[in-house]
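Retro notes - structure team

What went well: the batch runner handled both jobs without manual restarts.
What didn't: labels got mixed up in the shared folder, which is why I'm recording both outputs here explicitly, each with its sequence directly above its tokens.

Job 1
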Amino acid sequence: MHELGLCRNILAIVSEHAGDRPVRRVRVAVGPLACVERPALAFCWGVVTEGTGLAAAELAFVEAEGDTFLIKDYELEEAA
């Protein structure tokens, strides 16, 4: 299941860019030929982010074309 590795990489990239700021949502673009199972990716996201600064972050999917798989963007929590 390569989705676990993909989630680890997404976590590392978003954590590096977000720093200490809390993340609300991470959106990934997934094309139909990307060989990525969305339910498996969503499950792995919960496992990988447990106990991290992104534990509360939702993993959302955006439709893409072909074999596209990329982090589309991430949304930070608004400062109180």
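Job 2
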Amino acid sequence: MNVVLSRDGQVRAMETTVVSAEKHFGQLCSLLAAHTRKTARLRDAGDRLVKQLIALASSETPELRATLQDVAEDLAKVQDYRQAQAEIKKFKRVQSNEIKQLERLEKLRQKSPSDRQVISQ
């Protein structure tokens, strides 16, 4: 009888964990999607600015043309850097969430080593 009650408690705890994870991961995915769209719009605006600077440079004197092209190249580098920075931030967030999930799973395993098959599912 005691084993059944213990197993029921474990099942309820796992169900609660799953429900919580579904809720929070759904919200996290929505926020990440919104952030990605905003970042993409910013990147698009920067790319348009670079193209406009290059177009303007083509109609200017050689000295100004060289300067405008340098500014356009530097702005493109900043855009690339921002993109890389955003990607790193996203990967770190995903990695952190995975580590937390693995830590929770390990705690469940330590509490109940005999239920490895149930926990692994």
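One thing worth noting from job 2: DSSP finds three helices and no strands in the chain.
We'll revisit the folder naming next retro.
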